[in-house]
């Protein structure tokens, strides 16, 4: 699959427009055998200064662990982006067409007490102006070790999900 395959798909996904402001995401990581290994919620604060998009991502995992990752992303062409963040080796590269962004990068992933250098092949698909689905395949030495599936929802100016006012707190999964 290539990002260009989605050139005419709507709604059009513009990374810096979608992530400017507050976003919340819910995700899970499945190992290569399909077992859910980790679940998480991410609160994202995005700032676009006209040149760079800065994403401050605050992760809360189902086991209570927290993590902060800060991405700095630049548009490098009509359909291309580059980005850097702690843990990313070198530069991440993105291609965006239609409602899709394909984002690839190498990453030092914490696994227990060790760190594995892995490759991410992320596919972000915008569903409507507020909802996006992300599916990432994670490989090591060319072998798939798992997938991450994440659902994003843009929040209003107050940081609230106006469509979910009557729902319980964003994360109620018991630690596994």
Helix content: under 10%
CATH architecture: Beta Barrel
Q: In CATH, what is the homologous superfamily?
A: Calycin beta-barrel core domain
**Uncertain segments of ≥5 residues (pLDDT<50)?**
164-168, 170-176
How many domains?
A: 1
The 3D shape can be described as globular
Order of helices and strands: HEEEEEEEEEE
Rounded to the nearest angstrom, the distance between the terminal CA atoms is 35 Å
Strand order of the largest sheet: 1-2-3-4-5-6-7-8-9-10
- What is the number of helical segments per DSSP (H or I, 4+ residues)? 1
CATH topology (fold) name: Lipocalin
Mean pLDDT comes to 90
Main beta sheet strand tally, sense and closure: 10 strands, antiparallel, barrel
How many β strands by DSSP?
10
Instruction: Kindly provide the name of the CATH class.
Output: Mainly Beta
- Which percent band covers the strand fraction? over 45%
Label the structural class. Answer: mainly beta
């Amino acid at each position: 699959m290539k990002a260009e395959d989605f050139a005419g798909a709507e709604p059009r996904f513009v990374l810096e427009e979608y992530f400017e402001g507050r976003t919340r995401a819910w995700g899970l990581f499945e190992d290569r055998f399909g077992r859910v290994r980790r679940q998480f919620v991410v609160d994202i604060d995005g700032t676009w200064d006209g040149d760079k998009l800065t994403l401050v991502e605050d992760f809360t995992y189902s086991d209570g662990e927290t993590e902060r990752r800060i991405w700095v992303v630049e548009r490098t062409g009509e359909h291309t982006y580059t980005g850097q963040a702690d843990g990313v080796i070198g530069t991440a590269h993105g291609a965006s067409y239609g409602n899709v962004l394909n984002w690839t990068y190498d990453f030092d992933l914490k696994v227990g007490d060790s760190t594995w250098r892995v490759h991410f092949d992320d596919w972000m698909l915008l569903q409507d102006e507020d909802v996006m689905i992300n599916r990432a395949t994670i490989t090591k030495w060319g072998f798939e070790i798992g997938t991450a599936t994440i659902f994003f929802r843009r929040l209003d100016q107050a940081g609230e999900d106006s469509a979910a006012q009557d729902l319980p707190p964003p994360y109620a999964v018991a630690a596994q």
